[in-house]
Design brief:
- The complex is a heterodimer.
- Chain A has a domain of 33 residues.
- The longest helix of chain A is centred in the middle third of the chain and has 24 residues.
- In chain A, helix 2 packs across helix 3.
- By secondary structure, chain A is mainly α.
- Helix content of chain A is 80%, strand content 0%.
- By secondary structure, chain B is mostly helical.
- Chain B has one domain.
- The longest helix of chain B has 46 residues.
- The radius of gyration of chain B is 21 Å and the shape is globular.
- The chains are: A mainly alpha, B mainly alpha.
- The interface between A and B is large, with 45 and 63 residues.
Chain lengths: 60, 243
């Protein structure tokens, strides 16, 4: 029952709604991961240093 | 709740929670190895620059740039970076789910988490093992490019299997997942000796991957559970409005 309602809710969303929400989420994810994981700014590098090593991002 | 709001809150909450758990395990098992490696790195640095004992630079750290003080400040910034990266990872999972039309739920969340782990940690680590400070490595930008390419190809490969569920999808995935490793990660030419002892490096690689796996196996199901919960809340609200 619940599953049916959920499926209906998701299916009733238009494709454009999904694309807009998905692209926004993708953008936020890339900015966050790119910022803390890859930004070459030395202050960001030094602050995020141990996280980069721990999660296997190339660091030095 | 609108679709994006739902994704937003589910990603922020699951990333925050999984990032905090990961931070605790990381400070317990991973961070001490980084600090220990830095002792070797710092000890080795003057020897390499014996002609200039005043050289303050430890690896590529710019002496003038801001850096957190060791201790609480450093831990604080590491936890902050963990949480931001964790929320970012959760957004990536949510984005793939919405754009591919494969809903993430509490039940299949563990598979989503596993997919994230393989694409964003295990596959890159297969070519570029998690490295400690003081370990010699190839050019940074080349390694970052290979890392991104590998994560992307592996992620698309996994998605191809999930989406198509046929031999074509599997064949496409095999090519995409293998390609970065056949091309090969950037390597240093010639012989380079690491100043970091081997036992530290192997402990670090294992602890890093285990901590990452823990993060993904919490973040995936939690994101799915929140996603379902917010959807249910929306349905209930809609029914209430129509009653």
């Amino acid at each position: 029952m619940n599953t049916q309602i959920q499926t209906a809710t998701v299916a009733s969303l238009s494709v454009s709604q999904r694309v807009i929400a998905g692209v926004l989420a993708l953008f936020l994810g890339l900015v966050l991961v790119g910022g803390v994981g890859f930004a070459s700014d030395m202050a960001i590098h030094n602050g995020a240093h141990d996280m980069r090593h721990s999660l296997g991002f190339p660091c030095h | 709740m609108k679709l994006f709001q739902r994704i937003f809150f589910a990603a922020v909450l699951s990333g925050l929670a999984a990032g905090l758990v990961m931070s605790a395990v990381q400070q317990w098992r991973v961070a001490p190895l980084i600090l220990e490696a830095e002792v070797y790195e710092t000890a080795a640095a003057p020897a390499e620059h014996a002609h200039d004992s005043a050289t303050p630079a430890v690896h590529e750290h710019d002496a003038d740039a801001w850096a957190p003080q060791d201790g609480l400040e450093r831990i604080g910034y590491t936890v902050l970076a963990n949480i931001l990266a964790s929320i970012g990872f959760a957004f990536l999972l949510a984005a793939v789910s919405v754009l591919s039309g494969i809903q993430i739920t509490a039940r299949n969340g563990v598979i989503w988490g596993l997919g994230g782990f393989v694409a964003l940690q295990l596959a890159p680590a297969f070519g570029l093992a998690p490295e400690l400070p003081g370990m010699p490595a190839a050019d940074l930008v080349a390694r970052q490019a290979w890392w991104v390419g590998t994560a992307l190809a592996t992620g698309v490969g996994i998605l191809a299997i999930a989406r198509f569920r046929n031999w074509t999808g599997i064949a496409l995935a095999a090519v995409l997942i293998l390609a970065p490793h056949l091309i090969g990660a950037p390597q240093l030419a010639g012989e380079h000796v690491s100043v970091v002892p081997a036992h530290l490096a192997s402990e670090f690689a294992a602890a890093s991957l285990a901590t990452g796996a823990l993060f993904w196996l919490i973040a995936g199901p939690l994101l799915g559970w929140l996603n379902e919960r917010f959807t249910r809340a929306e349905v209930t609200a809609l029914k209430g409005a129509h009653a």
